[in-house]
Amino acid sequence: MRIAQIAPLFESVPPTLYGGSERVVSWLTEELVRMGHDVTLFASGDSRTSATLVPGCPKALWRDLSCRETLPHHVALVEEVFRRASEFDVLHFHCDYVHFPLVRRYRTPTLTTMHGLLHPPDLQHFLKTYSDIPLVSISHNQRVPIPDAMWAGTVYHGLPEGLHTFCSQPEEYLAFLGRISPDKGIERAIEIAKQAGMKLKIAAKIYEEDRAYFERQIEPILANNRFIEFVGEVGGRQKDEFLGKAKALLFPVEWAEPFGLVMIEALACGTPVIGWQRGAVPEVIEDGVNGYTVKDISQAVERLSHIASIDRSTCRNSYERRFRVDQMASSYVTLYEEQITRNARR
Questions:
Q1: Is CATH 3.40.50.460 the right assignment for the domain spanning 2-158+324-345?
Q2: What is the pTM of this model?
Q3: What's the CATH number of domain 173-322, 3.40.190.10, 3.40.50.2000, 3.40.50.20, 2.60.120.1440?
Q4: What are 32-73's pLDDT values in tens digits?
Q5: Fewer CB atoms near the end CB (10 Å): N or C, the chain?
């Protein structure tokens, strides 16, 4: 099958450090190539892939100091994709909605994975207008705000099997990994660790729009608490060790996170997760099996006292059973075939 993968241009594919969607696109692309498909990746020019790379810009836009507006680059990217649309059996988009107006004007089947939160005031009418464009959700919960959109299927993210190392003997610290943002619940994580009397290591990226929040709310706490360690962004082997050696990963999100990639990364290391009962958390975390889902800080602290009863090999097995990259790729191939058949009938 001739497949085009169209990635957002904010980070390279894969990203050097933080970047969820681009990382998933990379894993999917490489697995599709391994399966024998002819894959073309439309992404930033500093991306690394075994597929054919078509650069949409010289380097990742969030790493390019000369970039002030990201939309023009994505519009140009979409124009190039559709200029070459007849070369592919299917176009798989991961860059939100900028391509929607052109989808109806070309015959090539498309699929669009929604990687973010769906906000009805912005998207309800929009998705109704484009109700013929097939979408993929990354969790069942992601669909809840707009259940009547054109959902073609749900595909959970999947990790390459050798990406993370199973660790059976953790150290005595809790981990928080993500970005500095009120939505990510970092203040909750700090309070949980404080009440549990455990060390907390924070690996997080700080975007400029969140720097004021970090300096006002988080930095003073870090300066006055020797049990909290801020390690900044991590990637590669450092990220693997950070997650694998943790007693547990704290995922106290303040919003309905559509998936939460870090949860399955932790599980792949054998690290249990304590996550809020929000968004996709209950779909990923099996309460009492590979971690705990909780409603508040006191419940999280109480569950932490039982964290040693969660078998770390069971955590690893839950990743292998449900969140492998070959499972993700096979699910997408099935959806590609369905869309090709659907278009042929039309």
A1: no
A2: 0.93
A3: 3.40.50.2000
A4: 999 999 999 999 999 999 999 999 999 999 888 898 999 999
A5: C
